[in-house]
Amino acid sequence: MEQFTLFVSNNAVLSAAWVAIFLMIIFTSIKMKMSPIKQLSAQELTFLVNRKDGLVLDIRAEKDFKQSHILDAKHISQEKINNNDFASLEKHKDKPIIVVCTAGITASKVANQLSKAGFSQVSLLKGGMNSWLNASMPVAKK
User: Fold this and answer.
1) Which of 37, 48, 97, 138 is most buried, judging by how many CB atoms fall within 10 Å of its CB?
2) Do residues 96 and 121 touch, judged by C-beta distance below 8 A?
3) 81 with 69: CB under 8 angstroms?
4) What's the pLDDT tens digit per position in 87-119?
5) Which residues are CB-neighbours of 11 under 8 A, at least 6 positions away?
6) pLDDT at 128 over 90
7) Same domain as 68, residue 25
8) Helix segments in the chain, DSSP class H
9) Total domains in the fold of the chain
10) 41 and 89, same structural domain?
11) DSSP conformation class of 64
12) CB 56 within 8 A of CB 128
């Protein structure tokens, strides 16, 4: 214990950085658990689509969407997202909507926008389209 105390006192900046990182991990974990937006695996996405008539909403660029996308996914343009124009999704307001981006990073912003717009069951694909492809799940190509 004495060595630990000596290390902390001799390396205050390093110790403070470790404490800050630890607290950020705890904060992020709690925030994810408390969020109404859930992160789903590829298998959970498949379950929602097949059993609960979920809608996969692909927010990637049109070019990427045309190259390959999740079967029956609906594409929405960045322009509509920026303008909060979700009118084309109104009939899916009470159904599960799963937002998919390339790596699972930008989907959270769109999922939050949908949630604020009154969509009740919004989720996102953890890891985005990359995780879908890594799980060897089927894709459609236009």
Assistant:
1) 97
2) yes
3) no
4) 889 898 889 999 999 998 899 899 999 999 989
5) none
6) yes
7) no
8) 2-10, 12-34, 42-52, 62-67, 78-82, 107-116, 128-134
9) 2
10) yes
11) H
12) no
10-59 pLDDT, tens per residue? 999 999 999 999 999 999 888 877 877 899 999 999 999 999 999 999 99
Q: Are residues 88 and 131 in the same domain?
A: yes
Tokens 């298998």 locate to 43
Token pair in block for residue 117: 């717009």
Phi-psi region of 53 (alpha: psi -120 to 50; beta: other; left: phi over 0): left
Residues 114 and 59 grouped into a single domain: yes
Look at residue 71 and tell me whether its pLDDT is greater than 90. yes
At residue 21, the pLDDT reads: 97
67 with 6, same domain: the answer is no
**Is the domain of 135 the same as that of 124?**
yes
Paired residues of 74 in beta bridges: 57
Which tokens belong to 37? 């937006």
pLDDT given at position 31: 80
Same domain, 83 and 15: no
Q: How far from 10 is each of 4, 6, 17, 21, 115, CA to CA, in Å?
A: 10, 6, 14, 19, 48
Instruction: Give me the domain span that covers residue 109.
Output: 36-140
